[in-house]
């Protein structure tokens, strides 16, 4: 019964027009959306709208979650999911937004930028989200990182392997990701990926996702097989639309 209601409600949300004030926020805050072709941009806006309206938004430390926050954060989620089914975030119920970096139990004061939890919650520092958008080519975007974790755990485990499109995909994914994960562990300073990806396989996938969307040309040049796996999974080719992209040899 719940799934039937969700499908009915989602179909209704999908039919509703995209709010004009949100469209203006997309134009001003999400520069990457302007590089999408018209059909992909419409899919992106649909995913953004449905994501924003289906989630429960909670402001921490008396923060009032504004439309800007909802649109920007939902846009980051939709950037990953725009060519997937709308159901990919079904297990994610709540977004908790802190004004800035925060301190969960057992962590250094003010050291955490974001977290994704198995029980359907993502926690984000708004300052970190804004920094990720403002520094679009540094390979570090907290929102992309945490939503990659959500996609990863969609099959039940934070293990660096989300639910792939077909059974054959798992063989090449495992071989490619293992090779580059161990290479990062051995030579973190020589990689296009952030060293944090060497923490474990789940962090490697999230960090690789950040690089795929923020440093696509460099990743394609340095690790074409890893780029190809991510391109096949996300069904996008950001190296061709990144304004810094150049033909590769």
Descriptive notes:
- The chain has 249 residues and is of the alpha/beta class.
- It has 10 helices and 4 strands, in the order H-H-H-E-H-E-E-E-H-H-H-H-H-H.
- The protein has 2 domains: 2-136, Glucose-regulated metallo-peptidase M90, N-terminal domain (Cyclin A, domain 1, Orthogonal Bundle); 169-240, Collagenase (Catalytic Domain) (3-Layer(aba) Sandwich).
- Helices cover 51% and strands 7% of the residues.
- A 4-stranded mixed sheet has the order 1-2-4-3.
- Helix 2 crosses helix 4 and helix 4 (67-81) crosses helix 6.
Q: What's the layout of helices and strands?
A:
Blueprint (H helix, E strand, L loop, with lengths): L1 H14 L4 H10 L8 H17 L1 E4 L7 H15 L12 E5 L15 E4 L3 E5 H9 L7 H11 L16 H18 L14 H14 L1 H7 L1 H11 L15
Parallel strand pairs: 1-2, 2-4
Antiparallel strand pairs: 3-4
Helix pairs in contact: 2-4, 3-4, 4-6, 6-8, 8-9, 9-10
Please describe the structure with a list of short key phrases separated by commas or semicolons.
Cyclin A, domain 1; four-stranded mixed beta sheet; 7% strand; disordered C terminus; 249 residues; 10 helices; Collagenase (Catalytic Domain)
Order of helices and strands: HHHEHEEEHHHHHH
Q: Architecture of the largest domain, CATH level 2?
A: Orthogonal Bundle
Shape: globular
Query: Could you give the order of strands across the largest sheet?
Result: 1-2-4-3
